[in-house]
């Protein structure tokens, strides 16, 4: 069977950064749902991740693990497959290797460049056919044809359509179908309204879709994913099993990444984040620290975050636990999960929710939470959670923290207040001795001095 990729053009909606932040009737943006932007356009049902995986693998085809070692070994080459074909250029070859690696990271498949046949076989070539590209399902010849005259097909790169096309077609060669029964050979051009059978049939949820992310309420500003997204990861794992060998030690995604993958690496505030995290274990971090926009960062599996000015552009795959999140300089919303999280909002007035586990809320600089722009911790549990201000005090040159009723102009004086009627706490610190609160933090739930990590002596002076 031949599977063909065709692109539909649609206009991006305007971006409202407050949209989808909270549940109806709630003023707490940390209570948002895992996929808050999805909408029931045209009365389409919303699928679970497992249902999406079943839909993408409905053809029930895959390469067999013939030697039973738990990994399906697929060989590949770059050849002229038919008369008139053109060999891939160097950029195409390198980018195809990256796309194959992104699939091998999430599922128990491997790719080896050689002419002989493995347990599966792929062959790539440029072909001047009528389609943008097409790839064959397992059990056929494993051919992937790319039309060299279309867009960026001969110059694939991170987040452009050429790289996305390679990842899409390789998905077909592994056994993934389009989310519904459409392709470029249809007499009527496919559209989301007419062709999609469920709400998440968009390129914000799967690279196998034809339809723009905005159809699902997301906004990727015409960027394309270079690697499998949430639905694709679940589908590939349904066919071949999950690859827990991938990044099974401490890994950082985003800024300061050590992932070794270009789509997980951010270097400057203008870089685009567009990825779904698959991680095999360790103590892991989602670092969004250099972005200046207001962001929502959700550490829960099967959730979508709004990062770096986009909407629904960073997600976490089913079964993945990330322990830590770092916000940027905007007013961020950070949502923890069931694990022991380390949450760092950075500058701006941030809303933080630790979720289950023993969570630590970290403050390094005065600008992280001020009287004018205080952070709010929405679910602090005294005796379980911690507030770490050790770096904050060190940076301010504070050698002792003294809790007082009122300030008297000494650096390092702090006031801790709890209102039983509202269940709200305030932690305020004078770091300069000017008699003003330089650091100011609000919390739902009581904060007691043993909950504060300071790395300096703590004293009380209430006389």
From TrEMBL:
<feature type="compositionally biased region" description="Polar residues">
    <location>
        <begin position="13"/>
        <end position="30"/>
    </location>
</feature>
<dbReference type="InterPro" id="IPR011049">
    <property type="entry name" value="Serralysin-like_metalloprot_C"/>
</dbReference>
<dbReference type="InterPro" id="IPR024079">
    <property type="entry name" value="MetalloPept_cat_dom_sf"/>
</dbReference>
<keyword id="KW-0378">Hydrolase</keyword>
<feature type="binding site">
    <location>
        <position position="178"/>
    </location>
    <ligand>
        <name>Zn(2+)</name>
    </ligand>
</feature>
<feature type="active site">
    <location>
        <position position="169"/>
    </location>
</feature>
<feature type="domain" description="Peptidase metallopeptidase">
    <location>
        <begin position="59"/>
        <end position="213"/>
    </location>
</feature>
<dbReference type="InterPro" id="IPR013858">
    <property type="entry name" value="Peptidase_M10B_C"/>
</dbReference>
<feature type="binding site">
    <location>
        <position position="172"/>
    </location>
    <ligand>
        <name>Zn(2+)</name>
    </ligand>
</feature>
<dbReference type="Pfam" id="PF13688">
    <property type="entry name" value="Reprolysin_5"/>
</dbReference>
<dbReference type="Pfam" id="PF00353">
    <property type="entry name" value="HemolysinCabind"/>
</dbReference>
<comment type="similarity">
    <text>Belongs to the peptidase M10B family.</text>
</comment>
<dbReference type="Pfam" id="PF08548">
    <property type="entry name" value="Peptidase_M10_C"/>
</dbReference>
<dbReference type="InterPro" id="IPR006026">
    <property type="entry name" value="Peptidase_Metallo"/>
</dbReference>
<keyword id="KW-0964">Secreted</keyword>
<keyword id="KW-0482">Metalloprotease</keyword>
<keyword id="KW-0479">Metal-binding</keyword>
<keyword id="KW-0106">Calcium</keyword>
<dbReference type="GO" id="GO:0004222">
    <property type="term" value="F:metalloendopeptidase activity"/>
</dbReference>
<dbReference type="InterPro" id="IPR001343">
    <property type="entry name" value="Hemolysn_Ca-bd"/>
</dbReference>
<dbReference type="InterPro" id="IPR016294">
    <property type="entry name" value="Pept_M10B"/>
</dbReference>
<protein>
    <submittedName>
        <fullName>M10 family metallopeptidase C-terminal domain-containing protein</fullName>
    </submittedName>
</protein>
<dbReference type="InterPro" id="IPR034033">
    <property type="entry name" value="Serralysin-like"/>
</dbReference>
<feature type="binding site">
    <location>
        <position position="168"/>
    </location>
    <ligand>
        <name>Zn(2+)</name>
    </ligand>
</feature>
<keyword id="KW-0862">Zinc</keyword>
<dbReference type="GO" id="GO:0008270">
    <property type="term" value="F:zinc ion binding"/>
</dbReference>
<keyword id="KW-0645">Protease</keyword>
<keyword id="KW-0677">Repeat</keyword>
<dbReference type="GO" id="GO:0006508">
    <property type="term" value="P:proteolysis"/>
</dbReference>
<dbReference type="GO" id="GO:0005615">
    <property type="term" value="C:extracellular space"/>
</dbReference>
<feature type="region of interest" description="Disordered">
    <location>
        <begin position="13"/>
        <end position="35"/>
    </location>
</feature>
<dbReference type="GO" id="GO:0005509">
    <property type="term" value="F:calcium ion binding"/>
</dbReference>
């Amino acid at each position: 069977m031949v599977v063909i990729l065709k692109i539909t053009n649609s206009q991006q909606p305007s971006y409202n950064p407050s949209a989808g932040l909270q549940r109806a009737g709630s003023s707490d943006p940390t209570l948002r749902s895992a996929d808050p932007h999805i909408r029931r356009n045209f009365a389409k049902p919303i699928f679970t991740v497992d249902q999406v995986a079943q839909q993408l693998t409905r053809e029930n085809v895959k390469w067999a693990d013939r030697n039973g070692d738990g990994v399906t070994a697929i060989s590949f080459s770059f050849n002229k497959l038919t008369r008139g074909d053109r060999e891939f250029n160097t950029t195409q070859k390198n980018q195809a290797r990256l796309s194959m690696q992104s699939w091998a990271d999430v599922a128990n498949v491997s790719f080896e460049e050689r002419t002989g046949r493995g347990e599966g076989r792929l062959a790539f070539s440029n072909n001047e056919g009528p389609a943008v590209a097409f790839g064959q399902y397992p059990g056929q010849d494993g051919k992937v044809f790319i039309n060299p005259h279309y867009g960026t097909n001969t110059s694939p790169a991170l987040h452009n359509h050429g790289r996305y096309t390679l990842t899409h077609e390789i998905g077909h060669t592994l056994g993934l179908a389009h989310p519904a029964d459409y392709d470029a050979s249809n007499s009527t051009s496919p559209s989301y309204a007419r062709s999609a059978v469920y709400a998440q049939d968009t390129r914000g949820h799967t690279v196998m879709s034809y339809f723009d992310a905005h159809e699902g309420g997301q906004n990727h500003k015409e960027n394309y994913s270079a690697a499998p997204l949430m639905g694709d990861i679940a589908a590939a794992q349904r066919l071949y099993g999950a690859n827990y060998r991938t990044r099974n030690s401490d890994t950082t995604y985003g800024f300061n990444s050590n992932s070794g993958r270009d789509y997980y690496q951010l270097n400057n505030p203008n870089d685009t984040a567009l990825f779904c995290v698959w991680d095999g274990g360790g103590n892991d971090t989602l670092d969004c620290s250099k972005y200046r926009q207001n962001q929502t960062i959700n550490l829960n599996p099967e959730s979508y975050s709004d990062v770096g000015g986009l909407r629904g552009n960073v997600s976490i795959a089913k079964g993945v636990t990330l322990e830590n999140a770092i916000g940027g300089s905007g007013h961020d919303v950070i949502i923890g999960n069931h694990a022991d999280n380390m949450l760092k909002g950075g500058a701006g007035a941030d809303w933080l929710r630790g979720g289950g586990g023993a969570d630590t809320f970290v403050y390094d600089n005065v600008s992280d939470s001020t009287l004018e722009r205080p952070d709010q911790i929405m679910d602090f549990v005294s005796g379980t959670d911690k507030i770490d201000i050790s770096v904050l005090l060190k940076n301010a040159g504070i050698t002792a923290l003294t809790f007082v009723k009122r300030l008297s102009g000494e650096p390092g004086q702090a006031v801790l207040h709890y209102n039983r009627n509202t269940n709200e706490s305030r932690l305020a610190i004078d770091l300069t001795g000017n008699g003003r609160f330089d650091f100011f933090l609000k919390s739902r739930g009581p904060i007691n001095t043993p909950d504060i990590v300071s790395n300096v002596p703590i004293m009380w002076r209430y006389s």
